[in-house]
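> Could you send the Glutamate mutase sigma subunit prediction when you get a chance?

Sure thing. Input:
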Amino acid sequence: MRTVILGVIGSDAHVVGITILERAFEAAGFEVVNLGVQTSQSEFIEAAAEHDAEAILVSSLYGHAEQDCQDFHRAMDEAGLDVTTYIGGNLAVGQDSFDETRKTFREMGFDRVFDSETDPQEAIEALKADLGHRSREAASERTRLRS
Ligand code: B12
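Output:
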């Protein structure tokens, strides 16, 4: 079964969103390791390595996501982790348009960025597509190496 790591990063204590996401991803057939609220970068990384996860789903509601996610992808690289990363929630404070917010987090290394209006089903479909794509790439790489 495909495992995803889910949690709310930093000092953020908003729990309702990840509870809904946990149930939706489980119903869609994923194994969900829910780290809960106030999760540090290293807790996400350690859990992903321990559970051999295929994706990390970061939630942030309180407006400090950009600070909390600084150097997250560098720390993942240093840990030798290559997993799909999504972030979602209320990611910015103030008047930024969501396009700006998406750009900021894409540049930080997240594969996909979701706003607080996201239907969990949308993220599930996106993850199925992204993981399918990665599996196909890995399979064709294996075939290439064998030939
Ligand atoms: C309930 C609530 C609280 C409760 C939280 C209780 C709890 N334990 O969960 C309490 C009262 C404790 C609280 C505190 C604070 N809150 Co508050 N809170 C809310 C409120 C009203 C609802 C949040 C909620 O539960 N929504 C329902 C769930 C289902 O929706 P959701 O959380 O958005 O999650 C969905 C999507 O965002 C998305 N999603 C979320 N994460 C991810 C991740 C991925 C990968 C994906 C794909 C999708 C996704 O999918 C989820 C499911 O559909 C919101 C306002 C609002 N209407 O959103 C403010 C809000 C989030 N809070 C806010 C703030 C500022 C705070 C405080 C900082 C206030 C303060 N000064 O103390 C503190 C922070 C405390 C802390 N350390 O976290 C702001 C954040 C502002 C910003 N980001 O710009 C908001 C937006 C209110 C506002 N308009 O100002 N809060």
